Amino acid sequence: MKSRLIVTLMAACALALMVGCSGADAPEKVVERCWEHLAEGEYAKAVALMNVSAEQVQLYQSIYAEQSGELQRAGGVKNFELLGSSVGAEEATIEAAVVLADGQRIEATYKLVLTDEGWRITE
Questions:
Q1: 91-100: strand order across its sheet
Q2: Under 8 Å between Cβ of 27 and 94
Q3: Residue 37 sits in which domain range?
Q4: 9 falls in which pLDDT band (50, 70, 90)?
Q5: What's the number of domains the chain is made of?
Q6: Residue 95 near residue 85 (C-beta atoms within 8 A)
Q7: Residue 13 above 70 pLDDT?
Q8: CB neighbours of residue 113 within 10 Å
Q9: What CATH number corresponds to the domain at position 68?
Q10: Is residue 101 a part of any domain in this protein?
Q11: What tens digit of pLDDT does each residue of 55-88 get?
Q12: Burial class (CB in 10 A: 0-12, 13-18, 19+), 7
């Protein structure tokens, strides 16, 4: 009886670990991480969170690199605010605001899709 209880507890712990560690980041977190990467100049990591074709990857990285001066002049990202979200099984819409260190506030709506790699920004 005691060994059955131990096995049951071990299985429950293993299941809890798998559920806690599995799956992709929430769509809100993907948008926030994308902005963090942009603020750090990690354009390849930012683009990796987007659902773009292989041909578009270099283009997006170049665009972000060219525009990085504006973000740096603003002092970078101060914080990220979630304004609203609608998350379905395979699509999500995230409304968020990014507040820059100089006080600028950028509000946008992001569309995401669930891919094999996790949630990715499409718009």
A1: 77-87, 91-100, 105-115, 118-121
A2: yes
A3: 24-121
A4: very low
A5: 1
A6: yes
A7: no
A8: 15
A9: 3.10.450.50
A10: yes
A11: 899 999 999 888 888 888 899 899 999 999 999 9
A12: exposed
